[in-house]
Amino acid sequence: MTIAPQDFFPHLADWVANLDDVFPGKQIKPWFAQWEVGHIVSLILLGGSSILLNLRLIGVGLTEESPAEVRRNVGPWVHVGVVGVVLTGLLIGSANAERLYTSEAFSAKMVGLLAGVILTYGVSLPLAKADGRASAGMRIAGVLGLAIFALAVCMFFSAKLANPGLWHVLTAGGLIVLYATRGRIRWIYLGVMLALIAAQQVMTHIVVKADDYEHLDPVNKTFAFVFLGVIAAGAAAQIVASNRGQGGSAFAKGMAYAGILVWVMTAAAGRWLAFA
Ligand code: HEM
Questions:
Q1: What is the pLDDT of residue 247?
Q2: Could you give the CA distance from residue 158 to residue 109 in angstroms, rounded to a whole number?
Q3: Rounded Cα–Cα distance for residues 200 and 207 (Å)
Q4: Cis upstream peptide for 5 (omega within 30°)
C-alpha cells in the first residue's frame, strides 16, 4: 500500500486534474518559479525565527535576552513565515496539483505541517512567553504534537525514493546538539559522531560497493538508527547538564529540539516531492 493523497482520496482525481486549468492555478503556472521563490523565502523566515526562539528555550543562542523577550522580537516573523509558506504552497500546489496528489512525500509533508503548527503555536511560542514555565495545556499540545511528528517521520520513512530526505533531519539534529552541548559532553559527542561518519564511509564505499544498492540500503538504514540514538543521547546529556546549571525544564528543552526539527522534516519532505 502507498500513502499518496490519491490513495486516501481517490474520488478527488478529476477535480485535481482540472486544478491547473482554473483560477488560481492557471494564472500561477507561467510564474511558477517566481512563486516558488516566495515559498522558499517564507520558509527561510519561518526556519530562522523558529531556530532563534527554540534555541533560546534550549538555553543557548540569544541568552542575553529572556525567552519572553526573544519571543516578542521573533514571534511576528514566525507568523509571517507560517502564513507565507502555506499561502504560496497552496498557490504553487494548485498549478502542480497532480504531482502532489500522487506524491507520498507530500502526505508526510502535510502531516509534518500539522505537527509543526501544533508544536509552534501550542508549545514553543506560549512556552517562551511564560519564560519556559509549562502549563498543562502546553504539555497536552506537546504530547499531541510529538505523536503527529512521529507519524510524519514514519510516513516519510515509508516513502520509497524520498526517504533518504530524512538524512537532512538527522544532519540538522546532529548539528543543533553539537551547538547546544558544552565542555566534555561536546567533545565526547563530536568524537562519537566523527567515528560513526568514518565507519559509515568505510561500510558504504569499501566493504559494500557504492553501486550495490541491495546491500547499501540496509547498511544506511542501520546507520540512520545509530545516528538517531547518539543524537538523542547527546540531547539528553545536554538537557541534564544544563538543568544542573542554569535551570529551565527538561520538557521545555526537549520540546524546543522537536520545535526546530519538525520544520526541518516538513521542508525536507517538500524538497523530496521531486523524487516520490
Ligand atoms: C499547504 C501547504 C503546502 C503546499 C500545498 C506546498 C506545496 C509545494 C509545492 C507544489 C512544491 C513544489 C514541488 C515541486 O514541483 O517539486 C513545494 C516545494 C517545497 N516546499 Fe512546500 N508546500 C506547503 C507547505 C510547505 C511547508 C510548511 C514547508 C516547510 C516547512 C515547505 C517546504 C518546501 C520546500 C523546501 C520545497 C522545495 C523547493 C525547491 O526544491 O525548490 N512547504 N511545496
A1: 53
A2: 13
A3: 10
A4: no
Nearest-CA residue for atom 19 of ligand 1: 270
Q: What pTM did the predictor assign?
A: 0.96
**Sign (positive/negative) of CA torsion 103, 105, 109, 110?**
positive
Which of 32, 85, 100, 111 is the best mutation target for the ligand 1 pocket, counting ligand atoms within 8 Å of the beta carbon and taking the most? 85
The rounded Å distance from CA 243 to ligand 1 centre is 37
Residues in contact with ligand 1 (CB, 6 Å cut-off): 36, 39-40, 43, 85-86, 89-90, 92-93, 96, 99-100, 113, 263, 266-267, 270-271, 273-274
Amino acid code (one letter) for 204: T
HSE-CB at 12 with a 13 A cutoff on CA atoms is 13
Quick: pLDDT tens for 43-100: 999 999 999 999 999 999 999 999 999 999 999 999 999 999 999 999 999 999 999 9
How close is the Cα of 266 to the center of ligand 1, in Å?
A: 9
Cβ neighbors of 227 (< 8 A, separation 6 or more) are: 170, 174, 193, 196
Structural domain spans, the chain: 5-274
